[in-house]
Design goal:
Aspartate Aminotransferase, domain 1, homodimer, Aspartate Aminotransferase, domain 2, PyrdxlP-dep_Trfase (chains A, B), 361 residues, 7-stranded mixed beta sheet, 4-stranded antiparallel beta sheet, alpha/beta, pyridoxal phosphate (chains A, B)
Amino acid sequence: MTNKNALFDAFKQTKYQVAGHGPRNIQVLKDALENVDGEQESDMYGNGKIIEDFQDKIANYLGKESTVFFPSGTMAQQIALRIWCDDKGIKKVAYHPLCHMEIHEQDGLKKLHHIEPVLLADKDSVIRLEDVVNMESDVACILLELPQREIGGQLPDYQTLERISAYCRNNGIKIHLDGARLFEILPYYQKSAAEVCELFDSVYISIYKGIGGIAGAILAGEKDFTEKSKVWKRRHGGDLISFYPYIVSADYYFDQHADKMNQYYEEAKELAAFFNECGSVSTKPNIPVSNMFHVHFDMAKEDVVPVLLSVYKETGVGLAGNLQETSDKKCYFEISIGNKYSTIPKETLRKVFQMLDEKVK
Amino acid sequence: MTNKNALFDAFKQTKYQVAGHGPRNIQVLKDALENVDGEQESDMYGNGKIIEDFQDKIANYLGKESTVFFPSGTMAQQIALRIWCDDKGIKKVAYHPLCHMEIHEQDGLKKLHHIEPVLLADKDSVIRLEDVVNMESDVACILLELPQREIGGQLPDYQTLERISAYCRNNGIKIHLDGARLFEILPYYQKSAAEVCELFDSVYISIYKGIGGIAGAILAGEKDFTEKSKVWKRRHGGDLISFYPYIVSADYYFDQHADKMNQYYEEAKELAAFFNECGSVSTKPNIPVSNMFHVHFDMAKEDVVPVLLSVYKETGVGLAGNLQETSDKKCYFEISIGNKYSTIPKETLRKVFQMLDEKVK
């Protein structure tokens, strides 16, 4: 009999973890601050060198005219869609059924902005060109999430992206990128961030996924768009007097991790292959297209937990802190590769998957 | 001929400043982190020991059942009023014409929540009992800001507060405290925070006024109320994965400054008296009732700037970094006493006011 948090507790005790950059603890901030001059002045309500320099740096990286730092992607994306809706005078947008706004934001888009979503594509697939072309509603904006996180981080092929973008631009529809994991998809597409962003009128990126910062988001677009977003940021209560704790750490970890996405992508493919060699286990996607994937068990959660517990105990390698149940009473967990994976000795990894294969057969 | 920022630049060069706790720079965060264990885990979307402990500590201090940490007062207060409006089914609230929501938030309350304000009292006065009793509209909630910042930090007498509170409760109107500077008024009222908060159904306090933290706010009330506020916090995009940089510093500076409000209040009265001894200068209020007041000159801004520049240069004491113009072409600045005032040698202060008096006569 294991208690409810047994898996989480055991995971936290493991010496190695396959996912992430390491624990989310205060040392993350301390490390980022260590070589920063204490005399450096705080930003003040969105102004000041510290925030403007970072915004300019990311604008340059994304190839966009202007960017604005936001406390969260939730805030940044609602505001982006609101601006496009107001511009066009239509309070409708289109996005995937498992879009973050649809399932994780307590309906902020509807409750605060009264914007109605049109759901594109089946929830188990990525949005295709025909989903966009066959849409019956007139919408102000289409949001694409790359990769589509809730289905394991799947991606359309690049040509599809280009075609959707061209269709939107030919039809007066704005196209917004949920690029929470934009950095993470560049190795698969073999494109620069600026090349991908060029297909979109507005772009959100997260500071604390692959980049490994503490919190925060960037919204990018033309100056006219970002200036409007600042007004809405104040309305939302997101125009803080000081963002520098997030910005200093965002800048520090951007420099450390932005160039390591290819490594994470290659390691994700390697790790997914290990899982797929085990009986009753499969990954989604089968071959990852970013640093992330989902690990599905063809078994019930209560049968998987003891297996994982024994693997963690025997090998010191943690695979996941919790398991999500699916509608058909099976279970899965999510993996996003960061710095931790490469610290695991290959011999130890082999032992993990040998054990896992034996126990889930 | 002085350039636009000459006063601000000269102020930043001064050795002493009469207001505040010191520069808003990264050292503020470094100091707060110095003795914090790096192994301590981050909060996660509003949960975790680090955020819950701080929320409990402040709940206890305020005598409220529950509190929630918010990124900003703008967000916390809009949400408080929205909850009371939804509860009562009336989208109207009453507040002062110079309420923060009315003049500093880009109309977030109206644009996001569609709540209509009823403006109580003349803009140069605090809200009186008769303003509340004679109100013709049916409102869900009344907001009182203590002290009323935009008029120099004025306060109603305590009996008036008690009467307004009793009236609201007898008439089914919720009463919300904009307590951005709640700590700062306790010495004048000779009350505990809990005694003042008992008069209100919901309370917002700021972390970065007298407390001297980096950013953030607390919303307090009964558990049912604060649980609803968490849902709205997520909708606003304010439910960040990690608030610990703000919380660690809030806790650190709360412990340093919360008990010093009586000192700041006494110093504010002393400093205001110095100003009032100078010709053409007067403070609002004449005798401060908190750590803050406004310094008004019966002179035009362009005539005051050179006076201040010479005082700063001669004495090394900075009085203000900028001057606000009034509708009658005079000018004023705001002072909030913090740790810096007591560092100024008395002899130097005397010289400041001797010079000021001579130059503005």
